[in-house]
Amino acid sequence: MKRTIIALAMVSLVFAWAAFGEEKTIVLPAKPGNVTFEHSKHKDVKNACLACHTSEQGGKIEGFGKEKAHDICRGCHEQSHAGPTKCADCHKK
Asked: What does the pLDDT look like over 62-83, one tens digit per residue?
């Protein structure tokens, strides 16, 4: 039940993100601590939109959740040697 609530909260935040613009700071709720995502820090990265979104116009990230966030976000940070990669660097209580 808790996972369902967390998943619904994350989906809601993604919809809000798409609706209110790319400059917003998004807080993604997570059990080990919330993750703050600043879209403005990511929008200028080469091919940044398509790394997460299905089109250059952005919008909803299909299937977004814990596994996808770790694959996309942490994977990109490790590959580019930029940004946080350790749990506590993103998850703040």
From this structure: 888 889 889 988 998 998 898 8
Can you give the pTM of this predicted structure? 0.63
User: 36: which strand partners?
Assistant: 27
CATH superfamily of 2-92: Cytochrome C3 (3.90.10.10)
Task: Check the CA dihedral 71-84-93-42 and report its sign.
Answer: negative
Please give the Cα distance from 67 to 35 (Å, whole number). 14
Q: For the chain, what are the domain ranges?
A: 2-92
pLDDT tens digits along 7-61? 656 666 665 555 545 567 888 899 999 999 888 888 777 777 888 888 888 888 8
Closest CA relative to residue 2, chosen from 60, 52, 47, 66: 66
Tally Cβ neighbours within 10 Å of residue 54: 12
